[in-house]
Each structure stands twice: as structure tokens, then as C-alpha cells.
Design brief:
Blueprint (H helix, E strand, L loop, with lengths): L14 H25 L4 H35 L5 H23 L7 H28 L4
Length: about 140
């Protein structure tokens, strides 16, 4: 069973954004798998390989989050979404938090942990189900499906 599973409740009824959300969930699951494999490493070589994998997936998650946020924000601006400022603020807050986590990870101040994984899963779950779900009908009315 995956750490974070996509289901129909997450659909905002905009195909491009749904695909991006699915990719983000997949990356969180990949990061979780890499973290668990790293915890099971028996040799230094295995541990280094798993650390490289975690770093690579974490970087991809950060980059893809930025890409995803830019997609949503582009549509919000294009269609004059009334909650743009509040929504963008949430994106910016998440980006700052993850940037700090990544910096702490690089400096050896933090390791990937269940607490970090739960933060990623819970933030995305709450953001999609709460904030993003509100723009689905708005975008649909504008012809974006």
C-alpha cells in the first residue's frame, strides 16, 4: 500500500492539474520508499546510494512543485480567479518551508523522517481538498476542463 494514494476525491476536474497532482503524489511516495530503503541499508555503499536517491527525488519534488504552482497561478491570473492572492500565499509558504527543509538536509541538520513525510502528505492533501477544490468549478465555468 502506498504512503499517499490518489483517489477521485482529489480531482479538481481540470485534467492538467489533476495529472500534476497525481505526479506530486507519486513523487512523495517515491521519497517515502527511498527513505524506508535508506533505513534498511546494511552497508555504507547502500546507504550512500539511498541518500543519493532521496536527494534526487527531493529535488524533483521541489522542482515539480514549482512547476505545478506556476501552472495553477497562470490560470488564476488568466481567468482573474478572485482568491489568487490567498492561494499564491499558500504556495509561497510551502515553497519556503520545503526550501528550508532542503537546506537543513544539505547541511546535515535534518534527515528525512516520518514527520517530514507526514508534513508533505498532509500539506498536499489539505491543499488539494481544501484550497484547490474551490477553483475547479470556477475554471470549469471558464471552459478549462
Amino acid at each position: 500500500m502506498a504512503f499517499f494514494e490518489w483517489d477521485h476525491r482529489f480531482s479538481v476536474r481540470v485534467a492538467e492539474i489533476d495529472r500534476q497532482h497525481q505526479r506530486l503524489i507519486d513523487l512523495i511516495n517515491q521519497l517515502y520508499e527511498a527513505m524506508n530503503q535508506g533505513n534498511d541499508s546494511n552497508t555504507l555503499t547502500s546507504a550512500v546510494n539511498e541518500l543519493d536517491t532521496m536527494t534526487s527525488v527531493l529535488d524533483e519534488l521541489i522542482d515539480y512543485s514549482r512547476y505545478h504552482f506556476s501552472t495553477e497561478e497562470k490560470y488564476m491570473l488568466e481567468y482573474a480567479y478572485p482568491e489568487y492572492d490567498k492561494h499564491k500565499g499558500q504556495h509561497d509558504h510551502f515553497a519556503d518551508k520545503v526550501r528550508t527543509l532542503r537546506q537543513d538536509f544539505d547541511e546535515g541538520k535534518a534527515l528525512l523522517s516520518m514527520e517530514i513525510m507526514q508534513f508533505l502528505r498532509d500539506w498536499w492533501k489539505e491543499h488539494i481538498l481544501g484550497t484547490d477544490k474551490r477553483f475547479g468549478p470556477f475554471f470549469n465555468e471558464k471552459g478549462l476542463t
